[in-house]
């Protein structure tokens, strides 16, 4: 991560310096052609983001083309549900109340003893010690402590409402789909709608030897796989780190998507979404060191590209408004327009993912460049200032 931090800081500093120099060339005394330096950096950023976008297109529409989740073969009686929380009893209660009646073994894994109707609550002892930290520590304690005869353990975040469930396909790990619901800031919610458009690439993950990421909203793990791989590793992205470890450890590893969807809370404010994305970016970059070189490079390039993606919005557009020509070649213009249109497409794809009930959010499409910035700033923060520990995203607890 150190390389990314130094490079991103350097690029940001040079871009700022060159932007000032382009606006006020007299300050440079003619010693440096800052305009050329500026255009070179813009080209580099554009090529990097274009490369990441091309990878996404290949994943989504070539590798993932035609993917449909396999038939469900494991019902609620094959699954123990474990809901993870610190102490948010009201939020957890709403999640338990939302679960289909097919789930008859519901456990809450908490840091403190709380009261939740319809579930058995387990508090992680203060004295429990392992390599895993925070959320991963709680999951590892549950793995070691809670005996059961179920085929799967379904891990849910405290705010993950599973409103319909038709069973799980037979795979080592099954990822539930995600559909964040609005809780506060409109921009934070729209950034998650945008993320859902980008995240349709997940349909390719079942066809990769190692899925590119996982998320904790809802993920089911076969009990034998969990006991073999364990959660006992230090990371702040325990779900992705577990999937990566399982994919490399198991000879016939299988990963599938479920048809069920978790309606978890979108971050309620810009501060919360920035902190959430900051943890994801920093955790993924740190955990990626355990991946094979090719996957490690892919993960790092994608994170770096997302961090730099808003540069055209933040720098090129303001300078253009001020009448300063940058990146004015035809090829650069074509590349910028194409990537800009792809940004709009990702947002529209996200609205389509939500379905006809959310079509009114199509009116927000002109905000796509700003939404991209909201989505990406946490990645910038995660690279420049990685968090030292796990920070729970604030929950509102509404329906």
Account of the protein in words:
This protein has 399 residues and is of the alpha/beta class. It has two domains: 2-65 and 297-384, no CATH class; 76-291, Spore Coat Polysaccharide Biosynthesis Protein SpsA, Chain A (Alpha-Beta Complex). It has helices at 2-23, 34-63, 89-98, 134-145, 186-198, 223-229, 238-249, 270-287, 293-308, 311-321, 330-354, 368-384, and strands spanning 79-84, 106-110, 120-123, 152-157, 161-162, 173-178, 218-222, 255-263. Strands 3-2-1-4-7-6-8-5 form an eight-stranded mixed sheet. Helix 1 crosses helix 2 and helix 5 packs across helix 12 (368-384). The longest helix has 30 residues, at 34-63. It is globular, with a radius of gyration of 22 Å. The model has no long low-confidence stretch (mean pLDDT 86).
Write the topology of this structure.
Elements lengths: L1 H22 L10 H30 L15 E6 L4 H10 L7 E5 L9 E4 L10 H12 L6 E6 L3 E2 L10 E6 L7 H13 L19 E5 H7 L8 H12 L5 E9 L6 H18 L5 H16 L2 H11 L8 H25 L13 H17 L15
Parallel strand pairs: 1-2, 1-4, 2-3, 6-8
Antiparallel strand pairs: 4-7, 5-8, 6-7
Helix pairs in contact: 1-2, 2-9, 2-11, 5-11, 5-12, 8-12, 9-12
